[in-house]
Amino acid sequence: MDYTVLAYSTYLVLTVSLTMWVAHTLFKNGQVFLIEIFGGQEELASSVNRLLVVGFYLINIGYAVFTLEGMGSVSNTVEVMKALSRSVGSIILILGGMHFLNLFIFFELRKRAKNRLA
């Protein structure tokens, strides 16, 4: 197998798997915040939560596929590992940033919801 194909395939499997894991975690744990933000309307909170997950998938998987070409071609195992560490590392940083952005938005919305009720 060509090393470049190996690197690209491994990269896609890792990034899609990481994105799915983070999205699942955000979906499961963000539900509580959304229910509170929407005043106990669980159906609305669930709907918004699902839409947020779809957007999360589109942004992160889209970015991963978009940057795939940036890995360039690799010709040996060491280059595969270097390319994967650079590319997967950048995806992990982006997923972390998206996670903290989601938390910030949830807490801001929660604060606003509490202020409306006060």
Report on this model:
- The protein is mainly alpha-helical and 118 residues long.
- 86% of the residues lie in helices and 0% in strands.
- Helix 1 runs parallel beside helix 3 and helix 2 runs antiparallel to helix 3.
The biggest sheet, with number of strands, parallel, antiparallel or mixed sense and barrel status, is: none
Shape: elongated
Helix content: over 70%
Mean pLDDT value:
88
- Work out the helix count: 3
Structural class: mainly alpha
Oligomer: single chain
Share of β-strand residues: under 5%
State the total count of DSSP E strands.
0
Spans of at least 5 consecutive residues whose pLDDT stays below 50 are none
SSE ordering: HHH
What would you report as the Rg, rounded to the nearest angstrom? 18 Å
N/C terminus separation? 64 Å
SSE blueprint:
Blueprint: H1 3-37, H2 42-66, H3 77-117
